[in-house]
């Protein structure tokens, strides 16, 4: 399944400055694996050493925060928009 992945500014060094890239996979896990294969190193910035989404990274498939759906097993249908968003702290 072909999807689009929006890349935050801080990770664009991995995508040669591209703000959006194409991805493939039936689940978010598959999309992120393919993304890391196409752009080596980006996966380690999104996933921690145990393979879970980093605490301060939010990932959305469409409008759904994957933490409240099926996590890395969230379905990524054809044409889905995936957004990787670093959390912002402030006070």
TrEMBL record:
Source organism superkingdom: Bacteria
Family matches, as Pfam families: ThiS
PANTHER family: SULFUR CARRIER PROTEIN CYSO, SULFUR CARRIER PROTEIN SLR0821-RELATED
Protein name: MoaD/ThiS family protein
Organism in which the protein naturally occurs: Sphaerisporangium dianthi
């Amino acid at each position: 399944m072909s999807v689009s992945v929006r890349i935050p500014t801080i990770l664009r060094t991995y995508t040669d400055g591209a703000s959006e890239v194409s991805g493939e996979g039936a689940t978010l896990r598959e999309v992120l694996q393919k993304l890391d294969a196409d752009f080596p190193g980006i996966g380690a910035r999104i996933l921690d050493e145990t393979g879970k989404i980093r605490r301060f990274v939010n990932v959305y498939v469409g409008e759904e925060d994957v933490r409240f759906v099926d996590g890395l097993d969230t379905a990524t249908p054809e044409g889905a928009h995936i957004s990787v968003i670093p959390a912002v702290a402030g006070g």
